[in-house]
Amino acid sequence: MNGIKQKRRVRTQKRRMRQHKQSMLLIGGVMMLLVVVLGINGLSLRAKNQEYIAQEEEIKSRIAEEQNRSNEIDEMEGYVGTEEYIREMAREKLGLIDPNEIIFRPEE
């Protein structure tokens, strides 16, 4: 009887070892799958990051352009209030002249 119990024990141990090996292979396969998925996602995130960096640079250049434009508008606003600007617009838009100016017109 001792021999039969020993044979059963050996078969049971072999079956457990096979199950253990299968479970380890399954776990290893799942781990490899996770590594591949994470690697692919990491690459796509890097690509998105590069796109965002490019967008950030474009936005920074737009901000700089708009700041320059704002400075030009501020300068123009200061110029509009001057007497020189008023005279210039009176000459261009209304055709007015200063009292001490002489206008020469070509003969027709």
**Number of strand elements:** 0
Counted by DSSP, the helix tally is 2
Mean pLDDT over the residues = 89
| Element string (H = helix, E = strand) | HH
Task: Estimate what percentage of residues fall within beta strands.
Answer: under 5%
Largest sheet: none
3D architecture notes:
The structure is a single chain. The mean pLDDT is 89. The chain is built from 2 helices and no strands. The chain has 108 residues and is mostly helical. It has helices at residues 2-80, 83-94. It starts with a helix and ends in a 14-residue tail after the last helix.
How would you concisely characterize the structure shown here?
The chain is mostly helical and 108 residues long.
Index terms:
single chain; 108 residues; mainly alpha; 2 helices
Fold topology:
Layout lengths: L1 H79 L2 H12 L14
